[in-house]
# Entry
Amino acid sequence: MTLRGTSAITATLLLLVAACGSEQPSDTPESVLSALAKAGNDRDDETIRKLVCPEEWREDLTFAATKSAAVDEDPNLKDLTYRFTDSGVKDKTDTTATGRLDVEVEGVPDGSSSVLDRLAAPLPIALYSPDQNIGLVKRDGGWVACR
# Structure
């Protein structure tokens, strides 16, 4: 066997080991909820797009778009941020579950909160039911967040 052949086998084995040992974010409702909390804390709109139902995704509900709209309404909201906590999954079946993400809104000076009441919230907050739960559904073999 040549050195070149050995390198190709080594690279293939490394790829197989990496693929077998990693759980995709959509493998379980728990992993989706955890990934949503992390993406929300990181304001990672692209990851959030991958974790929500395609019909729920809207560019105007990204962190960038909603913060821009808030600052346009009230420049005092320039430090607006959200802090998400994964509070677990309940009511799990083979195809549905209910997740809860707690959120703290930070960087809102006194007198500016009324602006946020008028504006759309970013995803994943836009998916919240009145009791701050998020529906999780299994589609095409993977889990996503929906209303």
Summary: The chain has one domain: 25-146. Helices lie at 3-21, 29-42, 45-51, 63-73, 113-118. The domain at 25-146 is CATH 3.10.450 (Nuclear Transport Factor 2; Chain: A,).
